[in-house]
Amino acid sequence: MLVFLPLAGCSGGLGDSRRPLISVYSTAYLTEDNQVVYSVNAGPRPKPTPLPRNEWTWNGDGVLGDPSILIDLGTQTATFYKGRQPVGQSPVSTGREGYGTPTGDFKVIQKNKNHVSNLYGDYVDSAGNVVKSNVGVNRDRRPPGAVFRGAPMPFFMRIHGAVGMHAGYLPGYPASHGCIRLPRGAAQRFFENAPVGTPVRVVH
What we know:
- The chain has two domains: 1-46, no CATH class; 57-203, L,D-transpeptidase catalytic domain-like (Beta Barrel), CATH 2.40.440.10.
- The chain is built from one helix and 14 strands.
- It has one helix at 184-193; strands spanning 18-21, 28-31, 36-38, 57-58, 67-72, 77-82, 85-91, 104-107, 110-124, 130-136, 147-160, 163-167, 180-182, 199-203.
């Protein structure tokens, strides 16, 4: 049972910048602008679970200039330029630990609107039912009678080896096998405006 203390006329004991405890069982305090803060002796707070990010912008229609793309692994964003003008920005999900997305200067070397992975996907039976999901053909043994079905990677633009940009799921943190996932709408707009040869810089 939480017991709430009145806020008016109380002293939280931590100086003028903090109000009383939110409850007698809490280490949380209210600041003057009603923001929740925690006692310095309360220990580490649990990290919030990242939320999926799918909001993207595009202002490049009718804008002239040579296209280029900047991928920032630190901020998990992709920015599309025409000339020196940024005309589009999107969240991305890049390579998770053990599958890092390479940094450096690359170019779009191949485009395929309906690309399907030949490395990652599912093992399915003859009726198309998934027998084992999220497998790697070089890592997971194929069950007897099953066949490999590659994961779809719409609007794929290859930049280096097996790594490319494509539409995919963005959980809010790096989660891919090295590719650069974008929301479907952003992936399509980038695909339509980046011909083969478009420079792609990946930085951390």
